[in-house]
TrEMBL record:
Family classification: Belongs to the IlvD/Edd family.
Pathway participation: Carbohydrate metabolism; Entner-Doudoroff pathway
Name of the protein in question: Phosphogluconate dehydratase
InterPro entries, alphabetized: 6-phosphgluc_deHydtase, Dihydro-acid_dehy_C, DiOHA_6PGluconate_deHydtase_CS, ILV_EDD_C, ILV_EDD_N, IlvD/EDD_N
GO molecular function: 4 iron, 4 sulfur cluster binding; metal ion binding; phosphogluconate dehydratase activity
Lineage of origin: Bacteria, Pseudomonadati, Pseudomonadota, Alphaproteobacteria, Sphingomonadales
Native source species: Altererythrobacter epoxidivorans
Catalytic activity line of the entry: 6-phospho-D-gluconate = 2-dehydro-3-deoxy-6-phospho-D-gluconate + H2O
Residues annotated as domain Dihydroxy-acid/6-phosphogluconate dehydratase N-terminal: 69-380
Amino acid sequence: MSKPLHDTIHRVTQRVIERSRDSRSAYLELMDREANRAPDRSQVSCSNLAHAYAGATDDQDALKASRGPNIGIVSSYNDMLSAHQPYGRYPERMKIYAREVGATAQVAGATPAMCDGVTQGEDGMELSLFSRDVIALSTVVALSHAMYDGVACLGICDKIVPGLVIGALRFGHLPCVFVPSGPMPTGIANKEKQRVRQLYAEGKVGREELLASEMGSYHSPGTCTFYGTANSNQMMMEMMGLHIPGSAFIQPGTKLRQALDRKAVHRLAELSGTSDKTMAKCVDEKAIINAAIGLLATGGSTNHAIHIPAMARAAGVIFDWDDLSALSSAVPLVARVYPNGAGDVNHFHDAGGMGYVIGTLLDEGLAHRDIATVSEGDLSDYALEPGLGDGEEIVWREIGESGDADMLRPASDPFQPDGGMRLVQGNLGRGCFKSSAVDKERWTVEAPCRVFEDQPSVAAAFKAGELDRDVVVVVRFQGPRANGMPELHKLTPPLGVLQDRGYRVALVTDGRMSGASGKVPAAIHVTPEALGGGPLARLRDGDVVKLCAVTGELSTTADLASREPVADPRAAVGVGRELFAMLRHGADGAEQGGSAMLAAAGL
């Protein structure tokens, strides 16, 4: 029998509900108005309808006769991004699945889908976070045609799923199902990939060896298999009940993948016209709390310390880092997936995957069972594992024990008793520390700092031997308003090398690290950011900085008040960055979600 809900989770949930009372009520009232004003297509101008039906070819007669619900597909397909390459053929199949149940489907619109892996360390990465706002706006444009009775969102990766969630929530009076395409098969061992990266950082192997290693990891269509932001997104969609249960990590091109895609379309047709499982009803305070719980329990991407507050705001829910830190104190770490463990998401799924995680959390009273989901029931449906029966219909089965105790453990016997996402704060601001990825003996670092304004400068200092000591590396002017808050993955190999040489090393930055947050202790997303006079802009080389995940401290002994802040020396020009100036200038802080769009909308 399951335990009652953990007291800390209950208290945090009630705090979020109370804090969000006015904004959530306003959102639900808006969705009620939107539902009431949604046009009856039989009363819409014939000219309008003719435009909408003209490209429907095989479905024109069904649309004209209003025979059944019409599903709007919002797709983030491109074939540069491996995770989204499988979506190329989805619309034609989804239209067939819709016809099977008397419905129709149309591609409502497309969203951009940039690959953070491709832009990592390049100027284009400075567009990445704000692509989430663009994706949300694109989703709104797609659905603004008022032709749809339900929404299928096709997206997987980093900013794409949060952007789709935010956009779809503005049409929250409709049901919405998220349809993933699954991870690529496992490539070379993750430890081998990490070893080659560090050898390259030390100059011991060349580009040819590095490229061969990387292509052994990222080798075919499907999501990258490490547990970064993309796969953390899929975890969250399960925890929030927005997938067909068990969909997250079924590989592309398999019969089960196709059966789950088919079920998603059929389920959307069933939900159309209902009022109890709309997007607005599904994404409430408890669903947001569940997303955070899943992030903590699985050691997911630190990017979601930004995305969860942003998605919450779009649903009228106010969630902050105090809530995340409080939940972390109660939610144990039950999964170790690379880069926090040896195996990747395919091994994770084979060991029991999200079904096992959700089941053990529910058993221990560590997640909200009673949320509205797109399945027939509540979150309990997501504690099962999908498979194919004799007639190739989906059957959901009990999972049983973990298939790999080095990767998945019950919440009653976890890897560590807390979720490993800690709030650190002090006279340098507030930041996030992913303790689940860092050995406990490294949770406290106090050393003189070395201050940089970009990643290449850190790499140059490393190669020159200037960092061969105990050091806190500060990389500033990396926040949303400065340069769009890029991920700083190029810092990981050199800092890891320094740590392996025996030095006590830490990173402090107002930028992001995401799912690649690794073995080096780091305070990331530091807010207020350096641009505009944040404390990091007053630090100088040699100031002693203390970062401690045990006490939650992020501080310096330097007299910051006596100094003028340094100005950001760079201009964001090139690769189209100048066109994003409006988004940078209007962005709010990382803890609020780093969004110009939500700030401007007053959400």
